[in-house]
Amino acid sequence: MTRSHPTPEQLLARRHAADRRFRLYGLAGLGIAMVALVLLLGTMLLQGWGVLLQARLTLPIQFDPALVDPKGDRSPASLAMGDYRVLVSRALQEALPEVKERAQRRTLGKLMSDGASYQLQEMVLANPALVGTQQQVSLAASDDVDMWLKGTVSKDIPENQRRITDAQAGWIATLEKAGALGLEFNSDFFTRGDSRDPEMAGVLGAIKGSFLALVVTFLISFPLGVATAVYLEEYAVKGRWADFIEVNINNLAAVPSIVFGLLGLALFLNFMHMPRSAPLVGGLTLALMTLPTLVIATRSALRSVPQAIRDGARALGASPLQVVLHHVLPLAVPGMLTGSIIGMARALGETAPLLLIGMVAFIMDVPDGFTDPATALPVQIFLWADSPERAFLEKTAGATLVLLGFLLAMNGLAVLLRHRFERRW
Amino acid sequence: MTLSLTTEPDMERATPQGLIHPGPAGNQASNPVKVDSERVSVFYEGKQALNNVSLEVQERRVTALIGPSGCGKSTYLRCLNRMNDTILNCRVTGSIRLDGQDIHEPTVDVVQLRARVGMVFQKPNPFPKSIFDNIAYGPRIHGLFRHRDELDGIVENSLMKAGLWNEVKDRLQEMGTGLSGGQQQRLCIARAIAVNPEVLLMDEPCSALDPIATARIEELIDELSTNYTIVIVTHSMQQAARVSHFTGFFHMGDLVEFDSTERIFTNPRQERTKDYITGRFG
Questions:
Q1: Domain residues of chain B, as ranges?
Q2: Mean pLDDT rounded to a whole number for chain B
Q3: From A13, A165, A403, B194, which residue has the greatest number of CB atoms within 10 Å?
């Protein structure tokens, strides 16, 4: 028996069915992607919202000259030597006079961040007139108190498994009731560098490190990439050599970023002896990585400029350089900008090459220049995710949100620029 | 070049292709030769696209090049301002002389050559700039003016000559790409004549336009021929008949026949020309 062929009506019905199925597949794919995105962002927001708040103790601090200024001359050297820890513990004891026993006083001191004494020292160094006065000062509480207040850790588990003892929990309640302890906006997170203490750790150092590195990356890779692309696309004689170079550039774009890190390590650190951990070197390494992508993006932007425009300019007697500068480049600008911003966004999110050139070091200071030791946002995330303290979990999520925010802003800028320049057509 | 015209008077308007250009007064008094090409051959990647073409373009006359697709007429046209230079693996042999000077001589600057030999393309290709800047571009890069007023004059004059002034004089700062197809092509013509070329090459300038815009361009070509030497490539035999004084028929890389337009359309010497004119192939 031979198979009968479908009638035209059956064929038509099948074609429509195939169409509908295809659309459903597309919608399903999109749906899955959206769910994944919502889950990712949702988890990050749930875990990371807490970085906006920080448990702080507001206590009257007596800046006792005997403790703060051991030499008595108000010189920065003398003020730097002062014993600020005692100031903190005295203030705590005054707030909770019922705690008398020595061991108990030590556990009471654990409510305060180790960074609190540094904070007082910074205050006094910035303003020596504080010595001898009494001030209401808001000091960071320890990460354990912070998590206790935010409810990050359960309060129902047995005492011997908790970081906060029952006694400490009682003091926390007393202090809260007195209005001395509470969650406040955590400006430290946005104004400080890294720290061993989660409550004192901030992303500003990483943000500045990333920013400085990206400036270097852009300054190196944009002009170089555009010039390379213009030469290859508009000047180079097409032939075996051009093909060879094109294949190589495409391959370079696919090279794993850690290999570029090795190249940066060998070239910039071992051979050229540039400073380790510096945004300058990070930026140069990321520029090596971004360059092939940028060349490819720029070439395709140049290629999308209609040949008729080049012919028109040439026929009017424009020189090759005039054809490029007056006509081709202005039309290729949206594509070039989009390509380079997306390349920059990739560089911003890149971690591996930076590990190899030492930007993974623990650096507390916010970098001020291109040669200061620094770290970068994704590396900071990596470092915090690796830290044993539970409170760093929140910081990790917070830093991730900051990174995602920057990436979103950069991609938004790319869309905006493209939209803006494309109106010229 | 000799022009032996043996046109019978009754043939003048009687061909099926329509009106034939009346041609220059007298026709016997030929104008001086502007572009003289001798045994021009073009090879694309070793394949011969043009085979020993020799023809003379007369000054201030319209010379039409006709023939079926791929016959080499555009290739020949692009030799005259050396636009083929930019094409990879393209080799041009033979000699092309503009006012007696070989344009392939090393002393000839191709940028200067293209200022003297302007070109209008098949598809209107205004720059994505204002109408004013489109026209002003050539004069600017060649330094053809001293003051802004002069530039304004050049722009106005070019647009006048291209018959576009009245339509665009109030919106010179608008984008050239916002004009209609026919206007865009006239803008391109104005742009080409703004650098005051001696020769104007037109590569199927009407093939992307509607009949009304085409008629407008043809009128314009006629007007421009009093000042410029025009070489026009066209698909349309009717157009060649309407606008040109001389016509060359190309076929498969050969220049089959070159003569006055009247002669080509009424009494061609070659069998192939006759077959093409009467629509037997092409």
A1: 32-125+200-277
A2: 86
A3: B194
Contact with chain A for residue B82, Cβ under 8 A = no
The tens digit of pLDDT for each residue in B235-281 reads: 888 899 999 999 999 999 999 999 999 999 998 999 999 988 888 77
CA-based nearest distance B119→chain A, Å: 6
Residue corresponding to tokens 């509480």? A141
pLDDT at residue A281 in the model: 94
Which residues in chain A come in under a pLDDT of 70?
1-2, 423-425
Chain A: residues touching B (Cβ < 8 Å): 237-238, 306, 308-309, 311-319, 322, 326-327, 331, 424-425
The pair phi, psi for residue A361, each rounded to 5°, is -65, 160
Handedness of CA A410, A413, A418, A421 (dihedral sign): negative
Q: What DSSP string describes A266-306?
A: IIIIIIT-PPTT-HHHHHHHHHHHHHHHHHHHHHHHHHTS-
Give the pLDDT confidence score for residue A423 in this predicted structure.
Answer: 55
Question: According to the model, what pLDDT value does residue A99 have?
Answer: 83
Q: Is B6 on the interface with A (CB under 8 A)?
A: no
pLDDT at A262: 94
* Euclidean distance between CA atoms A241 and A230, whole angstroms: 16
A364: its two tokens = 């507390």
**Whether domain A204-422 has CATH 1.10.460.10:** no
B93 sits in which H/E element = strand B90-98
**Which pair of structure tokens corresponds to residue B170?**
């109030």
Nearest to A300 by CA among A232, A244, A224: A232
The full set of domain ranges for chain A reads 50-186, 204-422
Interchain CB distance below 8 Å, B119 and A326: no
Q: Which pLDDT tens digit goes with each residue over A71-124?
A: 888 888 888 888 888 888 888 888 888 888 888 888 888 888 888 888 888 888
The pLDDT of residue A158:
86
Q: Cα separation of A311 and A331, whole Å?
A: 15
Which structure tokens are listed for B56? 């003379």
A344 close to A218: Cβ distance less than 8 angstroms? yes
- B29: pLDDT confidence band, cut at 50, 70 and 90? low
Cα separation, B210 vs A170, in Å, equals 90
Please answer whether residues B256 and B270 qualify as being in contact, where contact means their C-beta atoms are separated by less than 8 angstroms.
yes
Average pLDDT, chain A: 89
Q: Distance of alpha carbon A177 from its chain centroid, rounded?
A: 37
From chain B, pick out residues whose CB is under 8 angstroms from the CB of A326: 137, 141
CATH number of B32-125+200-277: 3.40.50.300
Edge-to-edge strand ranges of the sheet holding A53-62: A134-140, A53-62, A181-185
